[in-house]
């Protein structure tokens, strides 16, 4: 997990720096959502690899990590919007504010989403 999180945060920030996340329209939200959900299976794969799970365990871990990410990704967006709203200086959205606000929001959403994936696997492992 100590390598997955910084790599995923760096990846989403690189997408933003490269201009792959447009600030207007639906395309930006779609790219952010895809980046968040693409990073979540890495948590499940890492846990399955380190715990030497069977093939069924690998599939189950990937499904559980995606479920946890799907649960917390919208919550992460709301938390970051509430946290950053006092600092937006009249901009209508975080994407319109751009710059440092968008970078902090993207990094925070990735952290919260991966914590959801990791937390769901942790809960399931308590039942195994």
Account of the 3D structure:
It is built from 5 helices and no strands. The protein has 128 residues and is mainly α. It has a domain at 62-128. α2 (27-50) packs parallel to α5 (99-127) and α3 packs antiparallel against α5. The longest helix is centred in the middle third of the chain and has 30 residues, at 55-84. 30% of the residues are buried. Keywords: Membrane, Transmembrane, Transmembrane helix. The chain crosses the membrane at residues 29-46, 58-84, 96-124.
Beta-strand level of the residues, as a percent range?
under 5%
Give the N-terminus to C-terminus distance in angstroms.
20 Å
Radius of gyration: 16 Å
Classification by helices and strands? mainly alpha
Helix content: over 70%
* Order of SSEs: HHHHH
Largest sheet: none
Protein traits:
128 residues; mainly alpha; 5 helices; 79% helix; elongated; membrane; transmembrane
Could you write a compact summary of the structure shown?
Keywords: Membrane, Transmembrane, Transmembrane helix. The chain crosses the membrane at residues 29-46, 58-84, 96-124. The chain is mainly α.
What's the structural blueprint in terms of helices and strands?
Layout: H1 4-17, H2 27-50, H3 55-84, H4 94-97, H5 99-127
Helix pairs in contact: 1-2, 1-5, 2-3, 2-5, 3-5
